[in-house]
What does this fold into?
Amino acid sequence: MMKAITWLASVTVGVAALSSSAFATTPAGWSTDLDKAFEKAKAEKKSVLVEFTGSDWCPPCIAMRKNVFSKKEFVDAASKKYILVELDFPKGDKALAEKNEPFAKKYKIEGFPTVILFNSEGKEFTRFFASEFPKTEDFLKHIDEALVKKDLD
It folds into this structure.
């Protein structure tokens, strides 16, 4: 009997580990509430960076999260000028995907991972596929240049 319980416990732990990695939580330093992010951006005089992702099915999204978005050096640097928002469309969490669907429609998202940069008033000033900049330093350079261009317009 004891063997069966031990085996069951190990299977249960294995399944829990699998499911928690499949639905990775939002990286530290990122919000999931776009409306609150715009309020915060106004208050802090920052821009808003929104990443539209498929965290559990989109290989470039998974790579960007692992190599850039979850990195402390990225979050620390980007947070100086941007409020970071992740809008996720996971296959394994239908409720979350449905909650974010109106934003995908509103902003005409055609692929993942799409990043849109907004000013604090909610006006888009650039968009691009995150996977064009697969390294932290390249990504930061790109969003810094986008801010400079925005201020020149």
Remarks:
- The chain has one domain: 30-152.
- Confidence is low (pLDDT under 50) at residues 4-23.
